[in-house]
Structures are given as C-alpha cells and as structure tokens.
Amino acid sequence: MERNALCWCGSGKKYKKCHMPIEEKMKLHADRGEIVPGRKLLKTPFQIQKIKESAALNTAVLDAVTEQIHIGMSTEEIDKIVYDVTTKGGGIPAPLNYQGFPKSVCTSLNNEVCHGVPGPDIILQEGDIINVDVSTILDGYFSDASRMFKMGEISDRAQRIIKVTEECVELGLEAAKPWGHLGDIAYAINSHAKANGYSVVEDIGGHGIGLQFHEEPFVSYVTEKGNEMLLVPGMMFTIEPMVNEGSPDFFVDEENDWTVYTMDDGLSAQIEYMVLVREDGIEVIAK
Known about the structure:
Elements (H helix, E strand, L loop, with lengths): L19 H12 L13 H24 L6 H14 L3 E2 L12 E4 L2 E3 L14 E10 L2 E10 L5 H20 L6 H14 L3 E2 L5 E3 L6 E5 L16 E4 L2 E3 L5 E3 L7 E3 L5 E3 L2 E6 L2 E6 L1
Antiparallel strand pairs: 1-4, 2-4, 3-12, 4-5, 6-10, 7-8, 9-14, 10-13, 11-12, 14-15
C-alpha cells in the first residue's frame, strides 16, 4: 500500500502508522524462510471487537454449564443448557449441524479424547471426568473454549492428568509471544506432558478462529521451538492440547463417526483457551 493511504484494516489510521511496520517486520521474517501469516489471518479492530462479543457469550455458556453440571445428569441435558443459553443470547451453537455433527456441544468423558456426542443415555457418574467444548457463532463471528469437570470424588490418576493438562495450557500460554512461533507453544506443552509421563495427541490440534469455525493455521502441540508459523499481532487461535495417559494414538467411533477414543483405553484430558496476539503480548479471549 501507499504509506499515506488509510490502512487496509479499517482502523482509520494511515498505513505507515498502522500495519506498515508490522508487514515490514513480517517480510524480514519471510526473507529468512520463516512461515508468516497472510493478511486474511490478521483480524481487524472491528473484527476483534465482534469476536470478543461472541467470546463473551461463549464464556457465559460455559459458566452456565459450570453452575449446573452434576452427577446423575445426562450429557443430553448439558447439550440443552448450551443450546438454550446460546440462543437466548442471540447466538448459534457452532457445532450444531457442522459437517453433520448432530448436537450443540461436544462432551467427552474419561477415555474420549474429543468430539463426544451428547445423548440421553450417557449419565455422569461419580468419578467421571468430562470435557465440555463450547463453540459459538454471534453475528457471524466465532468463538471456542472448553473446560474439564470432575464428577465428585475422582481417582488420583484422573486428578493428576487434569492438573498436568492445566499446567500444559498455562505453560503454552506463557511461551506464546508476539514475533515468536507456534512451535514455541508446542514445545512448552509437549515437554511438560512428556516430563510427567503423558503424551500429546499429534493429529488433532488447535486452529485459527474468528471469521470461521476452523481457520488456518493448524496448531500442533508436538513441534519444536522456533518452528511453525510466526506469531503476528492480529492472529487469533486456540491453545487446546489433548493429553493422554498412554499412547497418543486414537480411533473414531464407527457408529456415530465423531467420538474420538484413546487407542489404549487410557484417560484423556483437554482444556481450550482462545487467544489473540497483540503487539504487547497475548490476550486470552475465552477459556
């Protein structure tokens, strides 16, 4: 762009005072052979505001689940909470009918890695651990986050995998810095999981989000520090490692074609943050 023209992002500032310094820095990294995002992955100020509104509703939905989840309820009841709170807030549950997914939320218990399908016959029992993964569309903008829940008294092994997963996400967040790399996040997460005897699922990861449910980049949690895409201000993506007790391998339920299980029947835990890269650091948009 011409340096004195209004910036392409709609900020109202001149290009030279807005995205020109960022794009010049991106070019330096690209010239070194690094992977840099295109403009379409850099959210504009208006888009960021709208996505944050979606994320606020997404958080309200997760808060409602947190208040109401209990032993003896079915995962179908969780699905109803998510649908009701989302629609009353003017939103749409992003999973509903997404590539044929039949429900409004993913509920993954114990040895289920992700994409668990809620049902009236799946009853929460004492000792269960469950991931509730909520994704929201509001005014055409997307948000996504998940939490782990403990049903009553859970085993020491269940306590430990949740604790380590929480630590992995926080360490990944700490490693995420403007002008760093996605691999920095992955290395922090994978190193901590391995040090505690766990594995991180390799073929399912995080993703860009905001204008679509799943955008580029794919966010791996098993790559090396200094690798993968450059973290540029305006990027938005999820940090959501899936931590397994044993092998990182998994299989997909043949009946519903969605639910992902650990191959060795070990426990799995996942926590998902949605983050924005800013010039001064990383902002958590939803968790």
